[in-house]
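Comment thread on ticket #2218

A.B. wrote:
> Attaching the input chain for the structure job we discussed in standup.
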Amino acid sequence: METSYDKDGSYLSRLADVFGDPTRRGVYRHLRTCETPQSASEVAAVFGLHRTVARAHLERLCEIGLVSTATRRRSGGGRPAKIYAVADARLEVMLPPRRYERLARLLLRLVHETIDPKTAVEKATSLGRALGEETAAEFDGGRSARLSPARVMDWLESSGYDATLSSNGGDASVIEIRNCVYRELSREYPDLVCAFDCSMLCGMLGCTDQQHVQTLALSAGDACCRHEFRL
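C.D. wrote:
> Ran it. Output below, let me know if you need it in another format.
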């Protein structure tokens, strides 16, 4: 996956223009929650728009690379319908470009090659929990060392994750993450990165490892990371 950097600020300007419209922001958020690509007519029905207006919003999102297109056959035949889905790409706007991911990859390689795997995972788990507790306190203005699931969702959104919060129908809160900010690194070093990320969430929520279970993982090829927390 390639990352494009905004060297002269032109892309940032276009991005601000596109997302300056609240309806367009809503359309983009809606596409992120859809399990299948959507046509302009389907988007129009959700937002109470004329089909041409919905299409105009979708095409603007395509112009900056956040949405991709394909076609879908109509059940009654005729011309295939154009459909839209969130592009499988990472948006990264940096002025000037930073190289933190490369440094992170080198440090993970160092840990992977020089430390016993079990010890490395234990260290990553401990570090993730400590960071989660610190982050919770900072995010809550120093008032608490733990956050509610809803407040964790606020933090995840502000940090670039694409996550949803629900219930398992019982006593557990379920957080599903479809875009992890460590996704590329987790594919290369899943044990270390996922241990760190899971423990960070536990630290933010103030729960023990026994109160958490992960049933799906992006690093394993699943559609999302699915976490259950019994608080």
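A.B. wrote:
> Thanks. Noting for the ticket: The mean pLDDT is 86.
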